[in-house]
Amino acid sequence: MLTALLVMGGIALVLGVILGWASVRFRAEGDPIVDQIDAILPQTQCGQCGYPGCRPYAEAIAKGEADINRCPPGGDEGVRRLAELLGREYKPLEQEEAAAKPKSVAVIDETRCIGCTLCIQACPVDAIVGAAKQMHTVIDAQCTGCELCVAPCPVDCITMEPIPESLETWKWPKPTGSSERKTTETV
Amino acid sequence: MRWFSWLTSSAANTLVDPVSGRKLYPIDGGIAFADYHKQETADIPIRNVAMPSHYIVPLRVNPRFTARPIVDIGARVRKGEKIGESEGKFGVAVHAPTSGVIRDLGQYPMTHVSGLPALAYFIEPDGKDEAIEPTPYRGACDDTDRIRDFLQQMGLAGLGGAAFPSHAKVASSPVKTLIINGAECEPWITCDDRLMREHASEIVAGACDLAAAIHAQEILIGIEDNKPQAIAAMQAAAANHGTVTVVAIPTIYPAGGEKQLIERLTGIEVPYGHLSAEFGVLVFNVGTARAVHRALTYGEPLLERVVTLTGAADNPGNRWVRIGHPIAELIPEMAPKPEVDRYLLGGPMTGFAIPDLDAPILKGSNCIIAASPALFPPPPPEQPCIRCGACAPVCPARLEPMELYWFARAQQFGKAQEFHLFDCIECGCCAYVCPAHIPLVDYYRYAKSEIWEREREKSKAQQSKARFEFRNYRLEREKAEKAARAAAKAAETKRRLEAQAQESHAEATASGTNDRDGAASPSAPDANDAAARKKALVEAALARARAKRAAEATEPSGENRE
Amino acid sequence: MITAPYWRAPVSVTRVMGWVLLALIPAIVLHVIFFGPVLLAQLLLASVAAVAVEALLLWVRRRPVVSAITDLSALVTAWLLVLALPATVPWWLTLLGIVIAIGVAKQLYGGIGQNPFNPAMVAFAALIVSFPAELSRWPLPTTPVAWQWASFLGTPNVDALASATVLDTLRTAVHSGQAVSELLGRSPVFGTLSGAGYEWIAVAFLAGGLLLWLRGIIPGRLPFAFLLTLGVLSTLAWLVAPERFAPPWVHLFAYSTMLAAFFIITDPVSGVVTPRGQWVFAAGAALLVFLIRHFGQFPDGVAFAVLLMNLAAPWIEMKTQPRVFGEDHP
């Protein structure tokens, strides 16, 4: 009896040491977790999560200070991917209505712009060009649709325009699938 | 009826073409249809069509390139006049199909499965069909670069269906074999068949021109053996050309796919992501070869092509149609039967139902099928996959279609790529034989476009991130610079004050503290002043803006936004 | 949006399953001729039960019932299970088998296309573990029909009227020290080639299987590799030790061999799709069948062999992916 216990205990000890050594020796050298989170975030830099940009939000998630469901531009899929990466429970987005918004870009009504530069200062990705007292304009290709320029405009000349579907961005729809599949989705 | 052969790969061993005596190589998969429905149109000569009320000439030439418009609205153009400038590697020039007036330059529905619009000219013909003075090619016949530029200016694009810019294939890399694709493997379509029967010598001449341009040593013209008249015509035309061999290949869909034809004739498998030129082979469609000949010899830009009009129609046949001809004005030509419920562009295996008939004929539009429920019954409902494996042996790319379907459906796009999703040529053979009636190709197209979208988004996110980080850096730097300037200014002021203090030291020693207060206070009125000035400016600007708006409301809105 | 291809071959799951059922008819007819009509009662019971269980579970799982029933896959499972069992097993045993096959092995795994194991073989394995005696009583051509009916209804009076299969008889005899040559032809269970009566039904399975192959419903390489491997193994063993191993013809024309070769290992859902993988799968199944028949404790090895290969199927498939077009030029 005693021998058996000793043998088992000995085996457990040896295996434990091997496991511990292996975990140190063969540790997976991946990206630090903040980088991995940051890679999932859409980089709109909109601050809707309550942090000044995607990176600070990623850092807050990594520290466990912020929830994973605070990024409306990342959408439902973004939350799912974060949940998968971090092994956390999936949660629906905090701002439900925000999630449904189509992808948009800011458009400045150039006839009304007074050249106050407030929007230029607000843009997190320098996608607005112009100078003081000169008309401003948004570079569509670089606008992330964060809406941060809309509020500062004193003459309300900035609107968010949904990006129209073009032949370049058009996607094949997901096949509706068998009737079986449809029922699964409603269950 | 045996609907798939498990032994395709092993049974199709060494073949020899009885026409040319050439060795043929086995290709994988594919389907031999019981009825190709080519007899409806194959024996009717190509005819011309009436001039339409207008042409929609798109500037979008292919998915990678849209030409730059160079003619203003209201301008008069003549047939063959360049109206769109090619730019970049994959661009080709766009030409006016007839003489007339440019009425508009705007977004018009495109001949695309989505029906989305693209930039196009709206041309109203004047009926005179006046052409510009042609400028044939005058350079050396083996001057690859000059010929490439010439073809680009002549708007040459593949007439087989994909409309790949022809000049982009004519590179100076060494090419041994030039293949002219006359296989036309898809059911219903006969435009290449007719062209070969009626214009064989021009096709051979174009093939020789191309071979000279790319320094190819041999020319192989591959034609499926269900087109004996076309083979005979091409052989007769090629009789005097030693380097040209007409090869009859077994009829099996998709033997006319570029990769399949190369494999059949040379045994070379061109992997995904590689150009056939890397393996010493180039492929041009028969129609493209003829268009090259017409362009080089007669200076004719690519203005028209043969289009098969077929299906449930009383007057089917092939027609010469100019690029930009609205499909809606072409359909009456074939006198469709009343039961027709939609029109397909292309064949039944790879074509699509045209969402908007106002869309024009493009360079790659080879066939319009008037589809009726009797000819093309609606698909039976999709059932679960039973992994029967019927899809695998028919796949010409030796993929595992059921695995791809599985991953695409589960949105495991990474796994789908691991199983070579992008090697799929979307020929539709797997969906054709699937006993569970799963629209397999739809799943692959869906997965592919999702992957492309993700890649676009990823690259945009990376750009945004870089720009954000640079902005943060810039703000930091500006802040530091500002602080440095402020510090320098403060130091300057302090020095001046000290100097003043020294100067006035003799006069008033008791007011020193007041002076120091005064040094700080001027900024306050200054700031107030600035704010007031700014406010005035804003108001002035607002007034100006209002006036401008009021003025513009009376004018028609112009093209002020790009 | 209806998309390309706008043409489809006139094929359907129903058609595939229908051909499988049709291919089983010759064997069923011969079975009735040799052993009487009890098999028909079993088939009827199993068919009704299979459809009922399938419909019930589909309804519980809120899946479309009609399209899943009309694909005939439940009938195929039911018929294969009945043919794998002795025709004279009590009715409740058949019923239990159907519940296991359709209810557990098929629907609990997600229905058609999702089951990792062959449903009929799961049921057979469960039954043979639970009721080895009932599953070892195979009727002989001489067994009176009245006794068969009694057995079917659950009240057999005399056991001796039914017997173990040929291979089972040989195995138990060899285990108890007898030589194969002493046994061959001495017992009423032996016919000319293999089991009395059953050998001809095996030939009928072969005929039905060839029909399926010619129709392109099953790949020929599966039964070919299976029979080839089993033939080679049994020939070698028999040549080396004729007193310990059954002759190859007894193996090949055993009832369960032909059933497995053409109807069991050819189940696509739980099998392997890649061509090279199918060779491995069938050969592996044959090896296991041979080993279990001679060295195992159960009357027959097909069910366990197939289930073990089902387990290995995903791995085999992964290791035998075909070379994609243009990949690694040879």
Question: If you had to describe this structure to a student in words, what would you say it looks like?
Answer:
The complex is a heterotrimer of chains A (187), B (562) and C (330). With 187 residues, chain A is mainly α. Among the domains of chain A are: 33-98, Orthogonal Bundle (3-methyladenine DNA Glycosylase II, Chain A, domain 3), CATH 1.10.15.40; 102-162, Alpha-Beta Plaits. Chain A has seven helices and four strands; from the N terminus they run αααααβαβββα. In chain A, strand 2 and strand 3 (137-138) form a beta hairpin. In chain A, helix 2 (33-40) crosses helix 3. Chain A is elongated, with a radius of gyration of 25 Å. The N and C termini of chain A lie far apart (55 Å). In chain A, 25% of the residues are buried. Chain B has a domain at 382-475. Helices cover 37% and strands 16% of the residues of chain B. Chain B has helices at 8-11, 39-42, 144-153, 166-169, 191-198, 200-214, 228-238, 258-266, 286-298, 391-394, 401-409, 413-418, 429-433, 440-503, 512-520, 523-554, and strands spanning 15-16, 23-24, 47-48, 55-58, 60-62, 65-66, 68-69, 76-77, 82-85, 94-95, 100-109, 117-125, 177-181, 218-224, 244-249, 281-285, 304-311, 317-322, 342-345, 352-353, 367-371. Chain B has a six-stranded mixed sheet. Mean pLDDT of chain B is 86; it is low at 1-13, 515-525 and 555-562. Chain C has helices at residues 13-35, 38-60, 66-69, 73-84, 91-107, 119-130, 145-153, 166-175, 180-183, 198-214, 221-240, 248-252, 255-264, 275-295, 302-319, and strands at residues 138-139, 162-163. The mean pLDDT of chain C is 88. Chain C folds into two domains: 12-163, no CATH class; 170-317, no CATH class. With 330 residues, chain C is mainly α. The radius of gyration of chain C is 20 Å and the shape is globular. Chains in contact: A-B, A-C, B-C.
Give structural attributes:
heterotrimer; B: 562 residues; alpha/beta; 6-stranded mixed β-sheet; 4-stranded antiparallel β-sheet; 16 helices; 21 strands; 37% helix; elongated; disordered N terminus; disordered C terminus; C: 330 residues; mainly alpha; 2 domains; two-stranded antiparallel sheet; 15 helices; 2 strands; globular
Residue-averaged pLDDT of chain A = 80
CATH topology grouping of the domain at 33-98 in chain A: 3-methyladenine DNA Glycosylase II, Chain A, domain 3
Structural Rg of chain A: 25 Å
Tell me about the largest β-sheet of chain A.
2 strands, antiparallel
